[in-house]
Write a structure and sequence with these properties.
The protein has 271 residues and is of the alpha/beta class. The chain is built from ten helices and eleven strands. The strands form two sheets. Strands 4-3-5-2-1-6-10-11-9 form a nine-stranded mixed sheet, sandwiched between helices. Strands 7-8 form a two-stranded antiparallel sheet. α2 crosses α3. The longest helix is centred in the N-terminal third of the chain and has 25 residues. It is globular, with a radius of gyration of 20 Å. It starts with 7 loop residues before the first strand and ends with a helix.
Amino acid sequence: MSELKYKRVLLKLSGEVLAGKQKTGVDVETVGKICDKIKEIVEMGVQVAIVVGGGNFWRGRNGHQMERTTADYMGMLATAMNGLALQDALEARGIYSRVQTAIEMREIAEPFIQRKAEKHLNRGRVVIFACGTGHPYFTTDTAAVLRATEIKADIILLGKSIDAVYSADPKLDPTAEKYEKISYMEVLEKDLKVMDSTATAMCRDNHMPLLVFGIEDPENIVRAVKGEKIGTIVKWDTGDRWKVSQTKIIICWKEKWDRRGGSPVSQKGER
């Protein structure tokens, strides 16, 4: 226990990670390797929650000829399939787990209840959150931040196909700079695509730290909870407070100006 840096973590896994080299569906071998490491950290005393994506089966944006809401709901159902796959692999390894979904499907999973999720974690069970937030137009990255905040996780572990945050795509730009540490405001200002902007802003506003690391080597999950130097840590920076406050002041000033008729737009009475 003394070697652990984090006691309660939320692990975010994309659907593509579970597909392995086959790029679609669920690769049992890949899922098994990830679950072996999850078992290892659970036995070390770490409380583990997981948010899983569904991109190995379906992405809402794939249905560009469909109504967006319908396409997004299909994506949520895909995450439920991945959640069941993870649960099966974990329980085959003797690790008790529960799947909780944001859309009710009681025959196969529990509905998400924050207090119940925390109770499972305290009893050493892995809790797998599926179906995103339960609402269209929100990504599973946003769901990960929401659930991490609700269960009071110490950190979000964001397992990706890339090993850290870079200033550009290192596959396309060999001069891309690798960041060991970066603030949320920098991520937003530089548009670094760590997560979508909604999820990034939620992390910033709730002071939720994020560790971005390469999941292709599942041993990184163990290294992460021990606090070893891997990937990129994204945190609230003291300078962020000033930047956020400055932004709020500008917005408030503009709203006052508009109400007093100072804005040419307001004077015309149209927008």
